[in-house]
Amino acid sequence: MEKAVSLNFISVPSDQLQLANVGRSDTLSGHKYGPAVRPYYLIHYILAGSGTFKTDQSIYKLHAGQGFLIEPGQETTYIADKNTPWSYVWIGFSGNFADQLMQQIPLNQREPIFSLNDSKRLIELVNLLLLKSVNSTTKKLLNLSYLLEFLSIISNATIISRESTTSISDVYVEKAISLINKNFPNISAASLAQMIGLDRSYLGKRFKKVTGMTLQTYLKNYKITQARHLIESTNLSLLEISQRCGYQRVDSLARTFKATYGLTPSDFRLQQKELLTL
C-alpha cells in the first residue's frame, strides 16, 4: 500500500518533449509495484527509506539519496523495505527530443542507478510541477523548463555500478536491524555495537558493505520514516511524535522532515488529509 500525490498530463503525439506524469509516493512496509511497462521515460529519486528495484537483468538494493531510470518498454518491479519503506518522487516524460536528451545523460538500462548529495532543488521542482493550474501555453512552457532543469541536475549525478548495489547477507547486520526494530528509539550506533558484541567501527563497515549506507544513515532513515508514518496516520502532536521518534526538539524533526520531503510536517499532514477527501 502507498499514499501518493500525482498529476498526469495530457499526451500530445506531435510534441517533441512532453511530461507524462509527476508525483511523490510514501509507501508502507513491503509495498510492491509491478511488474509494469510504460511507454515513456520515468526517473525516480528516493527521499527516505530503502527498497529493491528489479529489472529483467538485475536486482538493486537502493536507499535515500539514490535514484533509478526506467526506459520506455522496460519491465520493472520495485518493492519497499519492510523496516524502512521508501518515499520517492518521480517524473515521467516522452517525445523525440526526450530520446535525444537521454542519449546525452549517462543513464540507461545497463546503468540505471544514480546518486545525488544535494536533492533540495530536485524536490522543489517536483513540488512545483504538482501545483495544479489552468492549462495554458505559459504554464506548459514553465513545466517544460522544470523538466529540463530536473534533467540537468540528473546529468551531474554520480552513476552507481551494479556491484555496489548488490544485496549481500550478513548475520550481524540482520541482527543489528532486528535490534533497531525492537529497541527504537532508544538505540544508537554505539549501543547497537555493544549489544551485538562487535567493535563499533567494524560493525559500521559490515553494515555499509551489506546495505550500501552507513549505520548512522540507516538510523536517520529509520527515524524519519517512523515520524512520517505517525504524521500521516495519527493526530499526535509534533511534540509527541518527536519524543516517540528520538528527536530532542520539535524543530529538529521539522528541519529534517522539510529537508527530506520538501514540505513541513504540518503541510505534509494537511496534504494527506486532502487526499482522503478526494
TrEMBL record:
<dbReference type="InterPro" id="IPR009057">
    <property type="entry name" value="Homeodomain-like_sf"/>
</dbReference>
<dbReference type="InterPro" id="IPR018060">
    <property type="entry name" value="HTH_AraC"/>
</dbReference>
<dbReference type="GO" id="GO:0043565">
    <property type="term" value="F:sequence-specific DNA binding"/>
</dbReference>
<dbReference type="Pfam" id="PF02311">
    <property type="entry name" value="AraC_binding"/>
</dbReference>
<dbReference type="InterPro" id="IPR037923">
    <property type="entry name" value="HTH-like"/>
</dbReference>
<keyword id="KW-0805">Transcription regulation</keyword>
<protein>
    <submittedName>
        <fullName>Transcriptional regulator, AraC family</fullName>
    </submittedName>
</protein>
<dbReference type="Pfam" id="PF12833">
    <property type="entry name" value="HTH_18"/>
</dbReference>
<keyword id="KW-0804">Transcription</keyword>
<feature type="domain" description="HTH araC/xylS-type">
    <location>
        <begin position="174"/>
        <end position="271"/>
    </location>
</feature>
<dbReference type="InterPro" id="IPR003313">
    <property type="entry name" value="AraC-bd"/>
</dbReference>
<dbReference type="GO" id="GO:0003700">
    <property type="term" value="F:DNA-binding transcription factor activity"/>
</dbReference>
<keyword id="KW-0238">DNA-binding</keyword>
<dbReference type="InterPro" id="IPR018062">
    <property type="entry name" value="HTH_AraC-typ_CS"/>
</dbReference>
